[in-house]
């Protein structure tokens, strides 16, 4: 079987709820390694707490838009205070990123 079209592509996704996760879902389906950055101060993506099927920090809504992706908790607003253990895990991953997806509507 041939490799997926985006096999070997790593994407860092700073997004939540809706359009961003929907777009990167398709990239993951095409074989990209999508790594979601979630804000620990808010409990992660708000869609984790949306019905239907919401239990604890998981919901069917969240699962359907984020299947095939990985998530990390990282407070980007407090970058200088990122614990060394988190920074040491993020640096090698960031060094291999080919693309970044952001759903920032504040601009």
Description:
The protein has one domain (10-102): Rossmann fold (3-Layer(aba) Sandwich), CATH 3.40.50. The model has no long low-confidence stretch (mean pLDDT 81). Helices cover 28% and strands 19% of the residues. Helix 1 (19-29) links the parallel strand 1 (10-14) and strand 2 (33-38). It is globular and about 35 Å long. 21% of the residues are buried. It has a four-stranded parallel beta sheet with strand order 3-2-1-4, covered by helices on one side. It has 107 residues and is α/β, with parallel strands linked by helices.
Low-confidence stretches: none
Query: Any idea how many domains?
Result: 1
- Profile the largest sheet: 4 strands, parallel
- Label the overall shape: globular
Order of helices and strands: EHEHEHE
Tally of helical runs: 3
Strand content: 15-25%
Q: If you consult CATH, what is the topology?
A: Rossmann fold
Strands in their spatial order, largest beta sheet = 3-2-1-4
Radius of gyration over alpha carbons? 14 Å
Number of strands: 4
């Amino acid at each position: 079987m041939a490799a997926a079209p985006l096999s070997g592509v790593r994407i860092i996704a700073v997004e939540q709820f809706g359009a961003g996760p929907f777009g990167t879902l398709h990239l993951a389906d095409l074989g990209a390694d999508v790594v979601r950055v979630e804000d620990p101060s808010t409990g992660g993506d708000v869609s984790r707490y949306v019905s239907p099927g919401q239990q604890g920090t998981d919901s069917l809504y969240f699962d359907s838009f984020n299947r095939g992706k990985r998530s990390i908790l990282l407070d980007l607003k407090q970058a200088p205070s990122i614990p060394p253990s988190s920074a040491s895990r993020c640096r090698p991953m960031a060094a291999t990123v080919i693309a970044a997806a952001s759903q920032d509507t504040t601009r």
